[in-house]
Amino acid sequence: MAPDTERGGERNRRVELPEAGSGSEPRGSVFPAGGGTTLARFDRPRGSGTTLAVVADPHLTPTDRGSFNVYHRTKQRFQMAVADADRLDVDGFLVAGDLTKDGATEEFALADELLSAAPAPTLAVPGNHDLDPGGEPSAAAFADRYAGGEYPVTREVGGTTVSLLDSTHPDGVESLAGGLDAAALLGLANDGVTAPRVAVVHHALAPLPAPVDTVCPAAQYRLREPAATADALADAGVELVVTGHAHWPYATTYRGLGVVGAPGCCSFPPAYLLLHFDAVGTTVSIMPLADEAGLTEAYEFAVTDDRRGDAVRAAVIDGYFGRFPMVEEVDTQALADPPTAPSVGN
Ligand SMILES: [Fe+2]
Ligand SMILES: [Fe+2]
């Protein structure tokens, strides 16, 4: 399936965003030329050459427009992520939640249509926008449709062990923050898997970086009891946790775990992640999903958002995206052939 538009070399150009504010502010830039940008290199987990695509927060809608999530581009962005991952022949396609705008039937229909072209296996966790207690689909139906079983689901994907967790309704109750309840963590601990693994969960585990931390209250964005949750994940053999929900790319370490916050597929900067596991560790690359015009449009919607606009503008002006990789645990100088972010769009 071909994406709607915005393929080709245009999106690999160095992008300069419009000057914000009075005109005295410096221009910012996002994603240097040459394709993917390395967000992090972790020394764990290691693997034998597996590459996984992770798409977070596509918020698919066939009808809505505008907002921080640039709803009228959601189909286009997700379609491009699917096509890119297929072209790169990845070993698996993972969705880190908020597949839909609001969990509507027509939104899931669009998701299913687009996911049918994604490279198998295709696995997803739910986000807070996907499930309503008592609504359709039920949590069990979502799990069956998008993970082939009841969460936590653990699968071997191209030689890498991946565990999918539902953080949307800990203990079966609605909450602003997400959480992994005792049953979920016990399920992971007792599943008999001993291999090091990657966990995918919608809500954030680690604190968000500045400047978005000031506009994203932990009570709404992080898993509840994050320290105890991280320790339980580590005890179950998790070495890397990939999260969505914050719609902001970052990487860090937290209580000994590698943690990656995936960018939003739909919002500024529209992108998805590639995780590559090899003998020296894990390389996390950000793969742009918009050309210069698309990135500028997403930026303009983002900076006019009442809640997060000022923080997004400050991040761009301050050169946030120029400071990647945010984690560098691999001595690339010592490697004859250092891992690099893959080039796309050629
Ligand atoms: Fe989201
Ligand atoms: Fe979310």
Q: What is the average per-residue confidence, as pLDDT, rounded to a whole number?
A: 88
What's the gyration radius in Å?
Answer: 19 Å
Number of helical stretches of at least 4 residues: 8
In CATH, what is the homologous superfamily?
Metallo-dependent phosphatases
- Within the largest sheet, what's the order of strands? 6-5-4-13-14-3-15
The CATH C-level class name? Alpha Beta
- Please identify the structural class as seen in this structure: alpha/beta
CATH topology: Purple Acid Phosphatase, chain A, domain 2
Largest sheet: 7 strands, mixed
Could you say which overall geometry the principal axes of the C-alpha atoms support?
A: globular
N-to-C CA distance: 17 Å
User: What is the strand content?
Assistant: 15-25%
The helicity comes to 10-25%
Instruction: Give the second-level CATH assignment, the architecture.
Output: 4-Layer Sandwich
Order of helices and strands: EEEEHEHEHEEHEHHEEEEEHHE
Low-confidence parts: 1-15, 19-28
Which ligands does the model contain, each kind named once? fe (ii) ion
Q: How many extended strands?
A: 15
Total domain modules:
1
